[in-house]
Please model this.
Amino acid sequence: MSSESPIFSQTYDLLRWLLPLAAKMPREHRNGLARRIPEAAFAFQNTLIAATKTPAETAYLLSQADIALAELRLLLRLARDLQALSFKQYEEGARRSVEIGRLLGGWLRTLA
Model:
């Protein structure tokens, strides 16, 4: 899969949306959640890039990407539960992560 695939543009858009959001989180969450959420999103993106560059390990790396996406979803939910994100912000993050997950699942199915 090339880096022109929709999953890469969707992931980029997610990062572009997440970074300012994390920077505006309440002070008590800046060293924890506000740092971990973008880290998880970047880890996901890096794993996708590695999957395109190492064909022999693509299936393994995509399963790792799935784990990173699950971590990101958990962090977004935790941020909502701790009121570091509004419901509308959480809803937007969930919508974006579901779409990315759908694209990731499609990529995984092409390998089977």
